[in-house]
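QA checklist item 7 of 12: single-chain prediction sanity check.
[x] sequence parsed
[x] length recorded as 262
[x] structure emitted
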Amino acid sequence: MKRLIYTSKIFLSVYYAHMLEYRAELFFWILSNSLPLILMGVWMQASQAGEFELTPEEFMRYFLSVFIVRQFTVVWMIFDFEREVVEGRLSPKLLQPIDPVWHHVAGHLSERFVRLPLSVVLLALFFFLYPPAFWLPGLGDILLFIFITAMAFALRFLIQYTFALFAFWTERASSLEQFWYLFYLFLSGMMAPLEVFPPTVRAVAEWTPFPYLAHFPAALLVGLPVNFIQGILVMVGWGLLFFGINRWLWRKGLKQYSGMGA
């Protein structure tokens, strides 16, 4: 256990120092995830006609929550892993007594710590320019939100890592992520809350992993009604499925890997 803690501290400190070099670039990455803030204004204006279940204030709080979720669930490891395989840079990591994926995990977690103050500054600026947007959730909602957001990040990371393993067979594994992102964009609740979806579409979407990567944690923070038990079970179920596929692809991929690309 001591060795595990020591190794984790070393990994996190090294990647934290690395991410600090990209503070300015990180700020632009945060701004690139501001689509929910843009859509917030659109849906608030549309809801004033009274044709939706949510009020303008609920739309405002929902999209702000989605923006926060997006800051802590963004994943890019497939692009790094793809380059490692294609360029043969995975080889030295395979010689280390640790699974190479932990390099990516440490990089993502360290980036969250660097991103946090920048995200808080951006939110504070938004609240300053638009005071009606400010609200204070209950402590229980905040704690539950943090827990579910961590689960959402873990699930999204696992899904993308599974897609990344196809780099052992193709030089463009990232194209799978781009195709997957189309479904994520529309079914995760980032473009619109699931409450405005047709009932049939929503019923189907709730059994896919997409709503639980953005809508589910955001709805918990805002206080919208959700099926909490179903949400947890679906997230765990998809996580176990992708974990099994991931380990199978890893074993097969290592046999395919040539050291100089797939």
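[x] summary fact logged: The chain has a mean pLDDT of 86.
[ ] second reviewer sign-off
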